[in-house]
Give the backbone structure.
Amino acid sequence: MIECPQEIPCDPCQANCPAGAIDLEDINGTPTVDFEKCTGCSVCVESCPGLAIFTVDCSSEKGCTVTIPYEFDLPEVGEEVIGLNRKGEEISRVTVTSLKTKGDSAFDTPTVTVQVQEEHVNELRNIRRSK
Amino acid sequence: MRINDHPILSFPETETITFSYQGREINAKRGETIAAALHNAGITELRNSGDRERGRGLFCAIGKCSSCLMKVDGVPNVRTCITMVQEGMEVEKQTGFPEIPSKSTKLKSEIIEKKSPEVLVIGGGPAGLRASLTAASAGASVLVIDENPLLGGQMIKQTHKFFGSSDQEAGERGKDIGDRLSREVSDHPEIEVMTSTSAVGIFEEKVGIYKNREKFLKVDPEKTIVATGATEDMIKFPNNDMPGVYGAGGVQTLMNVYGVKPGDRVLMVGAGNVGLIITYQLLQANVEVAAIAEIASEIGGYFVHAAKIRRHGIPIITDHRVSRVEGTEKVERAVIEEVGDSGEVIQGTEKKFDVDVVALAAGLSPSYKLLNHGGCELEFQPALGGHVPKRDKRMRTTREEIYVAGDASGIEEATSAMLEGAIAGADAALSIGKGGPGEEDIIRDAREKLEKLRAGSYYDNLRSGLQEVEKPSRTKEQ
Ligand SMILES: Cc1cc2nc3c(=O)[nH]c(=O)nc-3n(C[C@H](O)[C@H](O)[C@H](O)COP(=O)(O)OP(=O)(O)OC[C@H]3O[C@@H](n4cnc5c(N)ncnc54)[C@H](O)[C@@H]3O)c2cc1C
Ligand code: SF4
Ligand code: SF4
């Protein structure tokens, strides 16, 4: 899910997608994803400087996951965290299924993947540790 | 109030040193500025205003305003935001209009040194660094000076990744780009670097006189490139001079360069990219942000930057201006009010925030003073941020031997600053007989990239402003 609707001079999402799934007319265009080609690898999530890309994966039988870029104090795998929407409002408690630290990430942006109820996959865009 | 854990930055342990403030002993980290050390110790009132004895604190934190002037080792008017703290230093709060000491004190103004580099670059931000590298690679001898203790300009505090084209530096954090450029410049055999060194005037016959806290230098370059960046704008409201009102960039310098928190809770003013990005960075430094107040009806910054902070629940309140800050000695509260379509305040819409920091991200103005002093023709261009020098497409001002690059030529971004730096550096080298076709290629390539960068609808105003100040080249147009 690319949430980058403005014409800004930027192209790393398109340049780094290994599947060639992101289309951008030119550097000032707005990116679109060809979901037929997209493998869900989340490289774009790590490469986008605007932290504007999230991957939603409902292909597994175990349910859906959402991967978000997350440049804050990282939770642990298995930890229950609070899922937030685009306005930072709480939607539900979710569990961290995997993460990539700044060092693991191909483009230096840490990411967190959480297990999310299907009805929330288009809403959940942030998390907060409950501490 | 040091930042201990940061998701992006690490602040290395350095030696602890001690200095005195009003006779009291204070601990500091070697390598930090006096103002940062005082902030960490909770001292935010640094001086009194000259005539009214009102307390003043840090504002810009990069040496461009006069808010942090203090008396250091008996010398008044020292910009403590760019002066490194030293073991045993005696720092005093400055009150009134202090007397300038005579030569016999530690200001050794009698020491004058001469230097004659082929190219002098004033300012070691992305524009100046790229200009230095380009001119030096063409074979020119370069002296680059910066009044801050570290090279890199505003880049050293940009912890976020930059937009732009992936064949340039896009996707890299600003800080990493700045560090890389600084290293390349410091390692280059043809470039001499002087930090903590200010240009104080550009005079006739190409002579600039430059100060190095210890001594004055008369520099006699063949070409001078002015890459002095920009100054943060102040806005008018009662108590805007109270300690706790900072430039947003000043807040950023404190926390991202020196690892010191500006306070506990912040009201950000302005929802352009600078306000949005610094809000996000405050959250990363574990500082609470109450809200962003924006006077316009729309958010000026990029959608993606606004989205990043919205999802942390930070409200962006548009159509609101700061009406005042309140507090006894420093900021304790900020008050905002709604404004109507024609800018009138709507009564009964006051909102109060208990904050100890108000950060102003209300715009930047090009630092044009040296250019003005040097006799370069200026023009007022709101789309470029204020007064900017007229120049041609090779960044030559109306004084042939003086070039401009970066934010000093109009407020834009680091990517365009570097491209303009490359153009100025290459043309300066060519004009003294260095370099060759390779430098012409650099200029052509950089111009093309600039045009592409500025092509989007976001930049419509900028393009028309540029058209006004760019006069035709003296030589063949590229
Ligand atoms: C919060 C924030 C976020 C930003 N984000 C981005 C971004 O995402 N992408 C992007 O491309 N750009 C971004 N920018 C803009 C970018 O940082 C600036 O456009 C860029 O740094 C301008 O470069 P410059 O070399 O012209 O000036 P500066 O980086 O300001 O450097 C000027 C230097 O000149 C020195 N100087 C000034 N006067 C003198 C003097 N008299 N004597 C000696 N030295 C002097 C100063 O000390 C300073 O180091 C951001 C800026 C801010 C504040
Ligand atoms: S998830 Fe991978 S394949 Fe899909 S668009 Fe992003 S980078 Fe390309
Ligand atoms: S990398 Fe991110 S910010 Fe840049 S164009 Fe792609 S989605 Fe937009």
